[in-house]
Automatic annotation (TrEMBL):
Residues 271-384 form the Alcohol dehydrogenase-like N-terminal domain. The keyword Metal-binding applies. It holds the Pfam family ADH_N. Keywords: Metal-binding, Oxidoreductase, Zinc. Belongs to the zinc-containing alcohol dehydrogenase family. GO terms for molecular function: oxidoreductase activity; zinc ion binding. The keyword Zinc applies. This is Alcohol dehydrogenase-like N-terminal domain-containing protein.
Amino acid sequence: MTAAISTDGASFAVAAWSEVVAARGVVVAGSLYAAPAGSRVDAARALARAGRAVHVDLIVDPSGQHRGVTPVELAEVLSGVPEARVDVHLIPTAPGTNPATTTTAAAREIDAVLAGLDPSRLDHVTVDRGTLQRQASALERFRDRGGAVWLEIPCEDPATDVPDVDGLLVMLISSGTRHDADPASLDKIAPLAARLPVGVDGGVTPTIAGAAALAGARRIVSGRALLSLRTPNPHPKGITMSQNLPDSMRTSVLEGAKTLTIEDRPLPQAGPGDVLVRVAAVGVCGSDVHYFRHGRIGDFVVDGPLVLGHELSGVIAAVGAGVDEARIGQRVAIEPQKPCHRCRECLAGHYNLCPNMEFYATPPIDGAFTGYVTIESAFAHAVPT
């Protein structure tokens, strides 16, 4: 974690992966929509201290009311965190509804918001195509006062027709959803970046962020993968299920060729971005048999205690900071690896080619012939119940 501040007994943390992306000259912005109401100024302060920007979604429903971040909270951020770099995304609908249904009340509220914004305190304002047309006069006045206007490019928009704007925000998931971004959506970035500054938003994970930066994105917006609220709990590195977890677990340990022992080992704890998985089943791979019989595979030599097993499934028992608590109890199949997220292959989205890869049950990395394992959340894939 790169920054954390206290707020009512909790703290906001900014994920360290953003440092790697920012080092490429990319602006990494945290979405305040990911922070609970009443704590968004603290979230903005944590982002600013970490050198990250602040992204504010102002969502206006058909009645003209705000959902999520409000103009009052935006004003509090601008006055309370003057050092923050802020951009605003005006969304004329509630998440999951049709933007084409924007009402007169919503349009009136968007006009009022635009009139009240100080362009000197904002990097830019992003709007969709409908708002660009309906609020053309208000947006023109905003630009006349020195403001910059970006256009939202939905994931289903081929972006072949780009109007006169100052930048583009490519959405990597559909509005109102909470899935990880589709890497195929990144194909839009390079051709658009040749014409205008491009940002990305929606389901951005560390891997997606690196790939987007490599493709030419100059601004990357991330919510829960970047910004997390940590609250005190009995397991400080994870949020556990309601029932208590055991303190130890039975583990099969390969001591050398044809030598296995059973040990009681302490449970690992889920770090930021990780999940703790209770192992349900593990396959025995040919590599496990080879290590057991010969104590090595090629250059990989068992020269110390090693836990075998990498073909596993299980149930998420706890989550680390930045991972949705709703994942607790989810049945998952595990992609048993840990890429570095820093090398060129990782930043291009080809994490499977990472030269620094750590893989389960490959010396000296322990595997899954045990009770519980930890893994990066993105590599714990949900399976049908």
